[in-house]
Design goal:
CATH topology: Rossmann fold
CATH class: Alpha Beta
Strand content: 25-35%
Helix content: 25-40%
Shape: globular
CATH architecture: 3-Layer(aba) Sandwich
Largest sheet: 5 strands, parallel
Subunit structure: Homodimer.
Subcellular location: Cytoplasm
Main location: cytoplasm
Structural class: alpha/beta
Radius of gyration: 15 Å
EC number: 2.4.2.7
Bound molecules: 1-O-pyrophosphono-5-O-phosphono-alpha-D-ribofuranose, adenine
Distance between the termini: 23 Å
Order of helices and strands: HEEHHEHEEEEHEHE
Family: Belongs to the purine/pyrimidine phosphoribosyltransferase family.
Number of helices: 6
Low-confidence stretches: none
Length: about 180
């Protein structure tokens, strides 16, 4: 088995969560495996180590875990994009549709400076709504999105098409969702 196949085998699939018909790809089982956690961070480091990045924007909530470890390894800053009402200072907000509902995402207005080179990190790319909204927030604040990185992509939900204007990278794919 390749490293990537082994990583995929560490992801747990929960049928009908949080709604009937959704196959929930649960990365907690991957994160709690010492080899798995190190492997995903090392894979991202080797992909992004020569890209000029000022800030990682990590998306709530599982994106925080990966984004935090990666920002430490790449020596860049960490900005958190949060669900509404969680950030204490002035925010910019975008609404978006999810595979299973709608939501909004917020970022502190002073977290991104003009021309900051920003890498967006999340655990999973499904429809791309969450990441697209986050990219828009970064651009409204004057940042440049240099890439979007995910542990998992569900290509059938067309996230890569929605984000085709960006340089997207993911480690594991699950077809048929
Ligand atoms: O590509 P999309 O269709 O936008 O879906 C992907 C998003 O959905 C999940 O988060 P969720 O909204 O479940 O929130 P959580 O991480 O806080 O549990 C996942 O962690 C991504 O952020
Ligand atoms: N199928 C899925 N599994 C885990 N997180 C998701 N976010 C959106 N769709 C998801």
């Amino acid at each position: 088995m390749s490293n990537i196949e082994q990583l995929g085998a560490l992801v747990r699939t929960i049928p009908d969560f949080p709604k009937p018909g959704i196959q929930f790809r649960d990365i907690t089982t991957l994160l709690q495996d010492p080899w798995g956690l190190k492997r995903i961070i090392d894979e991202f480091v080797s992909h992004y180590q020569y890209s000029p990045i000022d800030q990682i924007v990590a998306i709530e909530s599982r994106g925080f875990v990966i984004g935090g470890a990666l920002a430490y390894r790449l020596g860049c800053g960490l900005v958190i994009a949060r669900k509404p009402g969680k950030l204490p200072a002035e925010v910019e907000r975008q609404e978006y549709q999810l595979e299973y509902g709608s939501d909004s995402i917020e970022i502190h207005r002073d977290a991104i400076s003009e021309n900051d080179r920003v890498l967006i990190i999340d655990d999973l790319l499904a429809t791309g709504g969450t990441c697209d909204a986050t990219c828009q927030l970064v651009e409204i604040l004057g940042g440049k999105v240099v890439g979007c990185g995910f542990v998992i992509c569900l290509p059938d939900l067309k996230g890569p098409e929605r984000l085709k204007r960006y340089d997207n990278h993911w480690l594991i794919e699950f077809e048929g969702d």
